[in-house]
Amino acid sequence: MKKILLGLLITAMCAVSMFAFDLGDFPKGTWIDSNWNGAWTFGVDGTIKLSDAKSGEVIYNFTQDKISDFKISPSLSGLTISFKCEETERTYSFTKPAALDTSLELKIDCAWVSGGYSVKMDMKK
Predict the structure, then answer these.
(1) What is the pTM for the complete model shown?
(2) Which residues contact 116 (CB under 8 A, 6 or more apart)?
(3) Whole-number pLDDT of residue 19
């Protein structure tokens, strides 16, 4: 019986790790892109998702099977998480500045917008 329970526990942990990222020291919480009414959530379980800030409806769940080139990069300007998503045809970069405030800087690059998209997001209260 113990072996069966251990097997189920290991299977469950593997299934969760398939959809989670190691976000390291990157802050967890939700930040609001007020330009597009987007809520970007970095979960304590290593999940990254974009939701509608008003309704809470999940717009896109960024799972390991949907992204590539996932990186966490420390620098003098702060801590950055970046990744590419083929399905959305975009590259995302989130930087937590070294400052004491709780904001995040979001940069999105895509082929059809020169210069990409950039916004400073405040943490959801």
Answers:
(1) 0.79
(2) 107, 108, 109, 110
(3) 43
